[in-house]
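Exercise (ungraded).
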Amino acid sequence: MNAPIPTHVLPTFERRPVPAVMLAALKKRFGDRCSTAMAVREQHGRDESPFEVPPPEVVVFCECTQDVAEVVTLAAEHAVPVIPFGVGSSLEGHLLAVQGGVSIDLGRMARIVSVQPEDLTVTVQAGVTREQLNREIRDTGLFFPIDPGANATLGGMSATRASGTNAVRYGTMRENVLALTVVTASGEVIHTGTRAKKSSAGYDLTRLFVGSEGTLGVMTEITLRLYPQPEAVMAAVCSFPSIEAAVKTTIQVIQMGVPIARCELLDTNAVRAVNKHDKLTLREGPMLLMEFHGTPASVKEQVATVEDIAREQGGMAFEWASTPEERTRLWTARHHAYFAGMQMRPGCRTVTTDTCVPISHLAECLLATVAEVEASGLPYYIVGHVGDGNFHVAYLIDPTIPQERETAEQLNLQLVQRALSLDGTCTGEHGIGLHKQGFLVDETGEGAVEMMRTVKRALDPKNIMNPGKIFSM
Amino acid sequence: MNAPIPTHVLPTFERRPVPAVMLAALKKRFGDRCSTAMAVREQHGRDESPFEVPPPEVVVFCECTQDVAEVVTLAAEHAVPVIPFGVGSSLEGHLLAVQGGVSIDLGRMARIVSVQPEDLTVTVQAGVTREQLNREIRDTGLFFPIDPGANATLGGMSATRASGTNAVRYGTMRENVLALTVVTASGEVIHTGTRAKKSSAGYDLTRLFVGSEGTLGVMTEITLRLYPQPEAVMAAVCSFPSIEAAVKTTIQVIQMGVPIARCELLDTNAVRAVNKHDKLTLREGPMLLMEFHGTPASVKEQVATVEDIAREQGGMAFEWASTPEERTRLWTARHHAYFAGMQMRPGCRTVTTDTCVPISHLAECLLATVAEVEASGLPYYIVGHVGDGNFHVAYLIDPTIPQERETAEQLNLQLVQRALSLDGTCTGEHGIGLHKQGFLVDETGEGAVEMMRTVKRALDPKNIMNPGKIFSM
């Protein structure tokens, strides 16, 4: 096992300065859309990860693909790093300017380029957020299901191959990105894919970029699959006597092929945090928060099946949220878990794990982890997209106590080792970033990582695209 | 528009001889599993494409990943091409030894390595065929849905990113391959991915190989997603007054989000051929052949919705095939369409198109094509996975009349131009192979194809992995 990079000790990266001539060219071209103000740089130099590194030297606010192409062309000429920036919700240090360089802010590229309701497709600029997308297409009767919790940009979600609560039914960004417009490392603009639902036309460049964490190019436009808003939606919470009972219920639901739309676990700590933060009165025990989509008859049938399974595992009666308002309240609470958890220990920082295992190993992986974490005495809570075998342990650590960080890292190492031994992955949806580079080698082997490096070297020979992420070169 | 390579004029490829020292090493290592007999070479030097080129110099029958690694290591040392071979059902010349070299026969790698029914996953050797897989896992209550018609190997299906009749509901090989064991161009063995349902661990090497047509490495083991056998299955045929009515029905079914499992179009010519070949009495008009999967209640509901839509489009009453035997008869007939079609014109060869367009453009694309083909006077039939916007025009050409080939190529060119102008793809599921290299450039642009070439050069610097396919180097 390779040790992870501990959160508090980053490797030393050589910073690559932005030459004055390049800075002048950027200022001339972009005017006040090019900023070196410290406040702007600092805002673009951090994300939700626990790392602290100096900010990028300059931030450029791009408004179209051509803007991005011009920044990258200049960066390529001067061998300066570029880091695409959306809303800064990465948990793994993707946005940190470890080698300095230019932060390309895509937040102003927030236009729905075109929507084709009759094809269930939409093309967006990379800076559109998922909530904005769903708001703007609501009248079409369609929706985009991928929901990582944070109101991330579609660009950021594509770059980390995000998923979240709806993935158990609708898949991840891997399954739902149809085509991309990409600015390559030389500043060229290419298009990957068409709006056809399937294609065998050459290498799957779309999926090479999805999950590449900004290291191969900048995605500027994204064509996505949409889905008809379900005729009927029901959400329910069910409380269980133990985590094991909740997980066993999940496993059976998946194995029976019930097309459940969301199947989320909250442990007792998470329920307690959410109750407090959102003024709810959920029973403080392990809980599944579920959602069912379909026709009224199909939803009724799914619910009956899941209720039967849950009852056998000692699940309490379902509590229903059938109106849109109640559902929104429940899911908002779930999405607040991250902030609710932090309020349980004022001043803490959150260190989050992201393992994902085959569903049959979920109980083993989760229960052994709970035992270890309980024994450690660290404050924590667990939430999980358990229908996919993915869960997050969030450790609430006091940043002034180094020992707590080290304990959290040690627990994470043990969890990843366990997940890999159970044929799982070290990251279900957050990405490798800075933190999991050792785990990536443990998971796929040096040969596969060297193949990734070979692709990177070929497509980005000057190593300017978000350097230092996924692997060192 | 780049012209396609006409079927009757292949570009000249330089053949790269197998040195005597390498041949001796292969014979020493593999004994009678290494064959230079002309009959064996010829069998491995053709597929279902209309091309004729000299066969490979030698065929090696591999039985495990290590065998493949040793062949490739030798080939790399001597810069000799290797071509993976399954059952030879490619339609696009993938298996042709245009530069000579070694055919690696994977047919003896036909073992189910492991099945995990509780995780809905299976790992197979690349030479397992889809029918064999479904036979061997039947008792688990699970099945593998991807069904391209031919009883292809899972290796071949992965290499071409195959799909077929069930893709409208279950996706293609892109969505259903979880992980691969691959022999790289240097003879190294790597693993891409785990059995976790989702992962954000680095570049998506799995999907880089799926659809790479043997040009980046040899896939030797494949981990696939399985699905619970549906509780209820119903199949029906519905005859329509026109192709337009059948297609409009399909479009509405998809747009309403009905989870139809199969939605196949047969034009009048195809129905006639199938009736004759399989002694059926289907009404000789445009027909949709559909299948519904789910719980009994859900299937009933799907059927009611589709019947309503079909009736509005003038569809005749559904004819049901609800027993497994009747269903098998119907789908066997569909799968025989290729051979049934050829019997309509004894001695003919089939030239098949493979465009796929966004569903809203399907009627326009298909109707304009029918008008052109009718005007040409060439014998043809049409079958289509219309739920995905994918259809095949099969021209039945007399190989002794060069003009017929040229007409077919001209019609194909017009069809591809139309599909691309409608934001579709030149190939939904057959791959690029030898035939569509010009179309690939038209579809994705020179920049994207050059990116593919860059990846190829980086991962296969000696250009030994199935050279000459997808693009020229």
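Further reading is listed at the end of the chapter. For now, observe: Chain B is about 35% helix and 20% strand. Chain B has a mean pLDDT of 95.
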